[in-house]
Amino acid sequence: MKSRTPVVLVLLATLVALVVAGCGGSSDEKGGGDSASGSGDASTELSLVAYSTPEVVYDEIIPDFNRTPEGRGVGFKSSYGASGDQSRAVEAGQKADYVTFSTEPDMTRLVDAGIVGDDWNRGANRGLITTSLVSFVVRKGNPKNIRTWDDLLRPGIKVLTPNPFTSGAAKWNLLGAYGAAARGGRDPQAGLDYVRELITRHVEVQDRSGREALQNFVSGDADVLLSYEYEATTAQKKGEDVDYVIPDDTIKINIDAATTRDAPEQARAFLDYALSEPAQQRFADWGYRPVNERVLAANKDKFPDPSGLFTIEDLGGWSRVNEEFFDIDNGSIAKIEDEAGVSTAK
């Protein structure tokens, strides 16, 4: 009679492999797509849909939330990608309970579609989960001595920024450039002239998301990456040889978060937790500016405001800005991008 030991070993090995595969959690190394995390015996699963960059923070906040009474038994399926792409995916039917985007129009799209309530930004935090500033990410030691927006237009300087028709980060970057040159919006033509020269003479590649642009910068030869302040601090925390410069004149970035209308009550509990002091400190540790006033005060030395800081409201607010600059058919920046051969397809 033949021994059955090999068969038993094969079956045991197969079972172990299946168990290991089922226990995988989310990772900030994936660069987008879906991931599952949270309680292993989840009785409720929340779908978290986010723009591309904050995965490393939510990978810490989710387990923290699971250790609270409200978070016990809650699992998460998470998706990260370019802000505009993510918003359009939810509009088209992708399941979402908690959404966070890098521009207000990406949230407004879901309000208009009836997916997010129109009261999403009426709370004490006005719909914000964090803020940031448009900054210059440069090589270690800043060898090209990049300090101001004018420095980006010096001969031979190569600049990276994502595509504003897929990436929220890119819209903020170009609004930062425009507003600085336009003196906070007071000289619109000077602002557009600057953006045209920047895009047509110094920006050769426009990736789909802020995260892709950072990866391109780290592995490429560009001199400057326009990005969120926290993209630079995150890169540094992960061991990349980069520095960053906050110009005197730059725009404040607002990052929004909300729950969807049909989300279970645990989604609201998670949003409340994300605004709590422990979670906001997690954001601060990665370089995101907290909106919790106590946490912001405790980290005030880490997040100074530059002298020429301006806001989206100074430029007319998102409804005006999105139409005036980024409308595919008539937007002034859209026309500049089209002239430069950049795809304006969403």
Explain what the structure shows.
The protein has 346 residues and is an alpha/beta fold. The protein has two domains: 14-130 and 254-298, Periplasmic binding protein-like II (D-Maltodextrin-Binding Protein, domain 2, 3-Layer(aba) Sandwich), CATH 3.40.190; 132-252 and 305-339, Periplasmic binding protein-like II (D-Maltodextrin-Binding Protein, domain 2, 3-Layer(aba) Sandwich). Helix content is 40%, strand content 17%. It contains 13 helices and ten strands. Strands 1, 2, 3, 4, 5, 6, 7, 8, 9 and 10 form a ten-stranded mixed sheet that branches. Helix 3 (83-91) packs parallel to helix 4, helix 5 crosses helix 6 and helix 6 packs parallel to helix 13 (332-339). The termini are far apart. Residues 1-32 have low confidence and may be disordered.
Quick structural gist:
It is built from 13 helices and ten strands.
CATH A-level architecture of the largest domain: 3-Layer(aba) Sandwich
Number of helices: 13
Q: Which fold name fills CATH's third level, the topology of the largest domain?
A: D-Maltodextrin-Binding Protein, domain 2
State which percent range the strand residues make up: 15-25%
**Rg, alpha carbons:** 22 Å
Reported for the largest beta sheet, the result is:
10 strands, mixed
Q: How would the global form be characterised?
A: globular
Count of distinct structural domains: 2
Helix coverage percent of residues?
A: 25-40%
Quaternary structure annotation: single chain
Order of SSEs, N→C?
A: HEEHEHEHEEHHHEHEEHHEHHH
Structural class label: alpha/beta
Mean pLDDT: 89
Low-confidence stretches: 1-32
The N- and C-terminal alpha carbons lie at a distance of 67 Å
